[in-house]
């Protein structure tokens, strides 16, 4: 039988397949042996190992069970999610499923413009920076930008959600992608504020300790009025549906809105930043 050489550096999918083969062979199993344990055909196993067929969530969970990796940092399920979602933080892909069905979306961001408001050029500049820092691969960067475009497209529907966005002043002060990209991004914010289903506010630096959040926060209200909260740090995301912990986050968001600039004043600040007069 001809053995096809694998290059795990070719892509995240190739790395997945090469790792599957390595673990299989380390146990002295043939593809038929692994197929029987995972309840797949040997042809399917071969196709995943050589990168001809992408892994699925079910396949990954089955592999984890067979190799004793379920729930570990080395789990195939974890590697699968990185392939599928471009190294998105844990909990975020699940959050996005709810986001596409929400009737109200409340966002708070620090340092960068919220994803739903980013231009493609702005998003690409952030992704390319992560590649240069070796945080993600070029393939994951492209997936991240494409994933964001799908999120934005999901909100264009006959009955769009009401979208409340509160941004720390740093979001409009920090230049991303150079002057041209940043100017277009600021123009996009002004256009967003003109939509009938949006409210854009800037939380200025001078509110000081009255800023209620130190990390980005996303709050979704669903059609049954249930509220879901997603918050993240640099390395971890958390999705919370528990009313006793979500209610205080919603209250803090309303308090932040009260301390922030009005939409008219926020747009005026953005226009001043565009003109370089501040």
Describe the structure.
Strand 5 (227-232) and strand 6 (237-240) form a beta hairpin. This protein has helices spanning 12-26, 31-38, 42-49, 57-67, 76-85, 92-99, 120-132, 138-154, 170-173, 179-193, 243-259, 263-275, and strands at 104-109, 162-168, 198-203, 217-221, 227-232, 237-240. The longest helix is centred in the middle third of the chain and has 17 residues, at 138-154. The protein is α/β, with parallel strands linked by helices and 278 residues long. It is 50% helix and 12% strand. Helix 7 packs antiparallel against helix 8 (138-154) and helix 10 (179-193) packs antiparallel against helix 12 (263-275). The chain has twelve helices and six strands. It folds into two domains: 12-82, Orthogonal Bundle (434 Repressor (Amino-terminal Domain)), CATH 1.10.260; 92-275, Endonuclease, Chain A (2-Layer Sandwich), CATH 3.30.870. A six-stranded mixed β-sheet has the order 3-2-1-4-5-6, sandwiched between helices.
